[in-house]
Amino acid sequence: MSKSIFVNLPVADLKASMAFYEAIGFTNNPDFTDDTAACMVWSEVIYVMLLTHDKWKTFTDRSIPSTTSSEVMLCFNLDSRAEVDAINRLAGEHGGTADINPSLDHGFMFSRFFSDLDGHVWEPLWMDPAAIPPSSQDETGQGAST
Q1: In this structure, are residues 127 and 118 in contact, taking their beta carbons and an 8 Å threshold?
Q2: What pTM, to 2 d.p., does this model score?
Q3: Chain centroid, CA 67 distance in Å
Q4: Which residue among 40, 45, 61, 72 sits deepest, i.e. has the most Cβ atoms within 10 Å of its Cβ?
Q5: Average pLDDT over all residues of the chain
Q6: Are 36 and 55 in contact (CB under 8 A)?
Q7: Are 49 and 26 in contact (CB under 8 A)?
């Protein structure tokens, strides 16, 4: 079994959130979807579990942040700058907030930011590893760690 990531997100309106994520390119896995949760698939290894507030509260006693706060920013890669632009536009057209933060353009790397219906911040990113400036790489040719 390959390693996967399941990102769990509390949502106020499950059906509206499912529609939002489908509109920006996720697909629903009905095997893990019911009236309290929905499994939205991004890739073979990345899944977003949308959980109603009541379902979320069965996992933790911690409060659900307001839609105007950010605890994490979820970054995922796309194949082109055009795809980054397109998903950001789709997010805005389907109830999210496009360009919630200023875009970043480093030439070899480009990202924009959007939030979903519940204020969760996403960063779609395009990067050309072959174009990373040498000063940004360590002796192995990999990006320098911070």
Answers
A1: no
A2: 0.85
A3: 15
A4: 40
A5: 92
A6: yes
A7: no
Name the DSSP letter for residue 131. Answer: G
Predicted confidence (pLDDT) per residue in 42-92, tens digit: 999 999 999 999 999 999 999 999 999 888 899 999 999 999 999 999 999
Instruction: Find out whether 39 and 28 touch, Cβ atoms under 8 Å.
Output: yes
- Give the distance, in angstroms, between the CA of residue 24 and the centroid of all CA atoms in the same chain: 10
| 133 backbone φψ class: left, alpha, beta (φ>0; ψ -120 to 50) | beta
CA–CA distances in Å: residue 128 to residues 42, 76, 79, 87, 131? 21, 14, 9, 19, 5
Compute the average pLDDT of residues 102-121: 96
CA-based nearest residue to 33, from 9, 12, 51: 51
Q: Using CA atoms, how far apart are residues 115 and 41, in angstroms rounded to an integer?
A: 18
The DSSP element (H or E) to which 44 belongs, if any, is none
